[in-house]
Amino acid sequence: MNRKVGPRWALVVFLVLAIYPLFPAFDGWFFSATARSLGAQMPTLFIFAILAMGLNLVVGNVGLLHLGIAAFFGIGAYTMGILTVPAYPFEIGFWLALPCGIAAAAAVGLFIGVPTLRLRGDYLALVTLGFGEVVRFTLKNLDAITAGTRSLVPVPPPATPILTVDWLQDFRPFYYLTLGFLVIVYWMLGSLERSKLGRAWVAVREDELAASCMGLNVSRLKLSAFICSAGIAGLAGGLYASTITSTAQPDAYDFNRSIFLLCCLILGGLGSRNGVLLGVFLLYGFDQILSPIVDEKLQLAYGAPIRREFLGIPISAQMQTFAGWRLFLFGVVLIVMMRYRPSGLIPNDRIKEELPPDPDARPATK
Amino acid sequence: MLPILFAEAFNWTNLQQQCITGLTSGALIALIALGYTMVYGIVELINFAHGDLFMLGSCLALTIFTAFGLAQPGAIDSASNVTILLAIACCLVAVPIFCAGLNRSVDYVVYRPLRTAPRLAPLVSAIGVSFIFMNIGLFWVGPQDVNFPDVIQDRNLLGDDANLRFTLKNLLVVGVTVPLMIALTVFVKFTSLGKAMRATAQNPTAARLMGINTEFVIGTTFLVGGALAGFGSVVYALYVNTISYQMGFQNGLYAFTAAVLGGIGNIPGAVLGGLVIGLVQALGTAYIGATWTSAIVFAVLIVILVFRPSGLLGARVREKV
Question: What is the ipTM of this complex?
Answer without folding.
Answer: 0.84
